[in-house]
Amino acid sequence: MFFIYSTDSESMKAVIMAGGYATRLWPITKTKAKPLLPLGKKRIIDYIYEKVKPFGFDIIVSTNLRFKEDFERWAEDKDVELVIENTTKEEEKLGAVRALYEVTKEIEDDILVLAGDNIFSFGLEEFVERYRSLKKPLIALYDVGDVELARRYGVAILDGERIVSFEEKPEKPKSTLAGIGIYALDRRTKDMLGEYVRGERKDNLGDFISWLISREEVYGFVFENGNWYDVGNPDSYLEAFKMYLTNHVSEDVEIDKTSKIIPPVVIEEGVVIRKRSIIGPYAYIGRGCEIETSDVSDSVIFDDVVLRKAKVWRSIIDEKCEIRNLELSSSIIGGHAKIQRGE
Length: 343
Hints:
Layout: E1 2-4, E2 12-17, H1 28-31, E3 38-39, E4 42-43, H2 44-52, E5 58-64, H3 68-74, E6 81-85, H4 96-104, E7 110-115, E8 118-120, H5 125-134, E9 138-143, H6 147-150, E10 154-159, E11 162-168, E12 177-185, H7 187-198, H8 205-212, E13 219-223, E14 228-230, H9 234-244, E15 248-249, E16 254-255, E17 260-261, E18 265-267, E19 272-274, E20 278-279, E21 283-285, E22 290-292, E23 295-297, E24 299-301, E25 306-313, E26 316-317, E27 322-329, E28 332-333, E29 338-340
Parallel strand pairs: 2-5, 2-7, 5-6, 9-13, 15-18, 16-19, 17-20, 18-21, 19-22, 20-23, 21-24, 22-25, 23-25, 24-26, 25-27, 26-28, 27-29
Antiparallel strand pairs: 1-6, 3-4, 7-12, 8-14, 9-12, 10-11
Helix pairs in contact: 4-7
């Protein structure tokens, strides 16, 4: 069941898929939608929204009931339509293909589909222009340049521009051209989503593409310039975070004379840093945190965290945690945790 909040018509509509539960980033994403995780002062989904907005398309964001209020707050100053999937946990989710079908089954326009957890530096103008000239399904590809890395993604084989094979997470990839969660679909192909979901089909959009290429001409568009990050796990999130971080320290942050800030960092409102602490480089410190005699780098610290005599590197700490007398490296700490080592 879906609740749709507005309707408009355009020759093409954009759909940002943001309804997953991001289990590989638990426990952080038990309480936070992955597309709303911070990348500096912005959120992951902000970068996607800003790439699409200049086209003037109607923009639909598909999410779930669990994170409905968070997305409503995010959307307050955005020109988007929210579509809410009536699920609250991983076991209930419809899956990407069925969710896309439910969102688009009444839409008469072509659609530009974007995964809500992808970060890319390149623009979409050439991709959209090429789709408009083809009027055939067009799939965005990026050469990850490494066979082992390609095993994580859907991998395409091209004959010219046409995709002749698309294999989801292959054991032995035949190329390093990865699908990057950006699709342009004509109305006829969009209608084929219904045929696909009526069978016992997998819920990954890559599997839909594999099914589609045996029935239709499907084309690939290779982005050759710029960067792309699939924010699927803590490492890729922190890498994207480092790439997109720009320096910002809120005016009311209290930093004593013995502490040091090494840019780039983002330090939100109400933070207190004292007693020879070192923050940065590449640190996000959420609102209301208290940091004493602690070092933080390559890490994301959410709101109202207390750090005392702690060293935090390449880690993510959720809100309202208290960490004392401890070194954390490559760690994820769930919300409200209290961890202390003896003096």
